[in-house]
Amino acid sequence: MRLTLRQLQIFVAIAQCGSTTAAGERIALSQSAISAAIAELERAVKLRLFDRVGKRLQLNDHGRAMLPQAMALLNGVDNLEKSYLNIAPSLIILGASPTIGNYLLPRLLADYWRLQGVVLGDASPPLQVIVANTADVAAKVAGFEVDIGLIEGPCHRPDIEVTPWLRDELLLVASPGHPVVLEANGNQISSERLAKTNWLLRERGSGTREALEHALLPHIPQLKSCIEFNNHEAIKQAAVQGLGIACLSPLVVADMLKTGQLVKLNTEFGGIPRRFSLLVHHQKQVTPGMQNFINYASRAVTTSDFHGL
């Protein structure tokens, strides 16, 4: 069997783009050259790797099994090539879920680059950040689209190494004029009352939502919600306007709690503990730059290490 890196590159491009035409545009090859390379690859492995559906190519079970191995191999070759050209990877790509990406990561990165001697403001540190929900960040790590993932929810993918990172908690908060707050008058709010009010929830796939449901659904069979958001800031502002109860990290609501625009609810749940995690693909080649960042980030124990909460 003689597989070439070019064949694997074309195979991955088609798997990600869904057609020979789109793959050819990505890697600057003609459609005929793409088709010929895939035919040669399938002959070499003596297996069909795609189902042909009209003009689209969809991975079959053999193709799905080959894809992560091919991506890992191409990633390793890329790192090897760069190291021997004496230009070790200069750009780290981080994927972060919204609480981390919007409220914690800016401070973390600023401190990290100052320690590296970078003069912030004019300099352009070699780093790219992609903010997405927990499920999407895990998928990007699995697809080698990001080097390191920083998430606030669980990840159970067998191809990803999950390292517990920071301790955080979620607070139940509402406007001081919310009916639940006024009725309680400082007393503990029952689960029955919480079940009757409107909740401001993140979309499914969010680590914040998963942690909330894990903690509350055994006590409240259903969280009533008329609006879902994919943005913590939108939830916070909606809560300030009295549209419902929110469940957010102190990283997100510290400012509004301080000014009194939001209040922490007195419930049996208190602060809902959770862990932020750091993700790296099992087959990812960890570069010195990646390891330096991981080592720095791992020194922190809680989210308050970065924001003094």
TrEMBL record:
Pfam families: HTH_1, LysR_substrate. It comes from the Bacteria. It comes from Candidatus Gallionella acididurans. One of its GO terms (molecular function) is transcription cis-regulatory region binding. InterPro entries: LysR_HTH_N, LysR_subst-bd, WH-like_DNA-bd_sf, WH_DNA-bd_sf. Belongs to the LysR transcriptional regulatory family. Residues 3-60 form the HTH lysR-type domain. This is Transcriptional regulator, LysR family. Keywords: DNA-binding, Transcription, Transcription regulation.
